[in-house]
Amino acid sequence: MGTEIKKIRPGVIISSDAAGRLPIKLIAPITDWKDYFGNNFWHVRIEPGAKNGLTKVSAIDTLQLRGMDTQRFIRKLGEISESQMTEITLAIVTLIEYQ
């Protein structure tokens, strides 16, 4: 509804495996990069590459986090780097004003 993402998108699994065998994972969707996203701390820029499976410059949208049943996963595209995961974590920490 409204500004929620409605189509099939790649995403980054945020949740830890420490949550056990629950069939739900916390996901941050990936969308096409727009220049104005550079002004938003919650959009984490990611360059395309063989390791992550992306074909164009993209944004990880930490403002659109959601729980998703793993049965909805279609396929694994790739992996992000540890430094990119740190950027995502910092964006989420800022969003929830954790200190």
Topology:
Elements: E1 11-13, E2 24-32, E3 43-46, E4 58-61, E5 66-69, H1 82-95
Antiparallel strand pairs: 1-2, 2-4, 2-5, 3-4
Q: Care to describe what's here?
A:
By secondary structure, the chain is an alpha+beta fold. It has one domain (about 10-95): SH3 type barrels. About 15% of the residues lie in helices and about 25% in strands. The protein is built from 1 helix and 5 strands. It has one helix at about 80-95, and strands at about 10-15, 25-30, 45, 60, 65-70. Strands 1, 2, 3, 4 and 5 form a 5-stranded antiparallel β-sheet that branches. The longest helix has 14 residues, at about 80-95. The mean pLDDT is about 90.
Could you provide a short overview of the structure?
The chain is an alpha+beta fold. It contains 1 helix and 5 strands; from the N terminus they run βββββα. Strands 1, 2, 3, 4 and 5 form a 5-stranded antiparallel beta sheet that branches.
Give the C-level CATH assignment: Mainly Beta
C-alpha end-to-end distance:
31 Å
Q: How big is the Rg?
A: 13 Å
Could you list the spans in which at least 5 consecutive residues all have pLDDT below 50?
Answer: none
| Count of all domains | 1
Q: Tell me the number of strands.
A: 5
Helix content: 10-25%
Form type:
globular
Q: Can you tell me the CATH topology?
A: SH3 type barrels
| Protein structure class | alpha+beta
Number of helices: 1
Give the name of the CATH architecture. Answer: Roll
Along the chain, the helix and strand elements come as: EEEEEH
Task: Quote the average pLDDT.
Answer: 92
Beta-strand percent range: 15-25%
